[in-house]
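Example record used in the benchmark description.
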Amino acid sequence: MATAREEPQTTSRARGDGLYYGWVVAWTSFGVLTITYGVQFSFGVFLPSIARDLDVSRTQAAAAYSVYVLVYSIMSSVSGALTDRRGPRLVLAAGGVLFGIGYALTGAAQSTWQLIVALGLIAGLGMSAAFVPCNATVVRWFAHKRGRALSVSTSGGSFAAVVVPFLAGWLVERTSWRVLYLGCAVMLLVGLLVASRLLVGRPEDIGLTLEDELGRRGAAQPRPATADDGAGATGAGAEVSLTPRQAARTTSFWVLVSIFLCTWLVVFLPLVHLPPFAEDLGIGATVAASLVSAVGIGGLVGRTLTGGFSDRVGRTVSLAAVLGVQVVAFLVFAVSDSLWTLYPAAVGFGFGYGGTTTVFPALVADLFGRAHAGALTGLVFAGAGSAAAVGPFVAAWMYDLTGSYRAAFVLSAVVNGMGLVLVVVLRATTPAHPGGRAAEPSPLRGTGQLAPGRRR
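Model output (structure tokens):
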């Protein structure tokens, strides 16, 4: 009976009498990504201490992080599909348990293989329950303000990068990295279990619709056909989504995978190796760790601005802009020799990284619809995001080989530049709508025929 009374109240709030529950979902996701990415981004701060304590090279220690990224990227396809079928609560709670076990064992590791099992495998499985399930849930709650809502949720990662690595750098100079990882284990276990109770899979689960997002339920407001609409759909209420199998038969899916492959292949390189790079230049550990915070500041700005911007001018225009900033940032890293250049480059990289992360789930949902957003976001993330495991490891190998990270930064700029070219290709293959706005691929067609919609 309590549930029956609660649903009309929620509907009333959605109609303008209060807060639309989609924003609760977005801000809860913000909290989840703050604590999960905060711990993840601290690895670069802990890396020198871990390598010294285990008496291994940075390449060997970074191998555990590469396995971690590989595992959570690949398994995001599973967690995304589970989110579609079972909802986000179960997935997030399971992730919290895995995080707690994984990071507690990380703090107790005595060898490289133990670090790989604890951090790489177990904590990596826990991380697969964060980005994709949370943001796939957010996109189901929004159609009109999807980019803006994703700006809120994805900003958690950038907020974490501002605060946590700087704090971690201060703490690691005063206590053991092992104690810090044990504290992280407790924080993630409790935090994700609490957050799991606040997430609801979609508005229909509590008697709402997408029109409640604007507080106009029942008004039958017409809207243009979008990427959520099927072939021939032209008005309000029409929504058809592609299954993963159908999406994989479209050209746009593989172009999308290729774009983010070039983006994420090197995305974690600064987050892991920028503090050690700064220390090699003679900068203290605490100040070096603040460079990751500078990345977070840029990311916070990038995520905040890019979401709403992409709602207005289109996803590909926004994606091209932020990727261009990222290319420039990598080139500046390569020639930097002081904080005067490292800080602006870190902010610029963060802006680009934050922007691409915000556009990604929205672009998937725009192209292929809401119903399988978890599976599709997870599938793209698994295919492209798993490449992020390679970047930090290759950079560590290049450092051991040359004694410098500069060549790795140049290579990163080249790879991101290839992604920028592919964005232009995606834009060029989307012809203009007669009304002057770019057309969007219809999710049911996927064969080059297009339906009008938001700008691409």
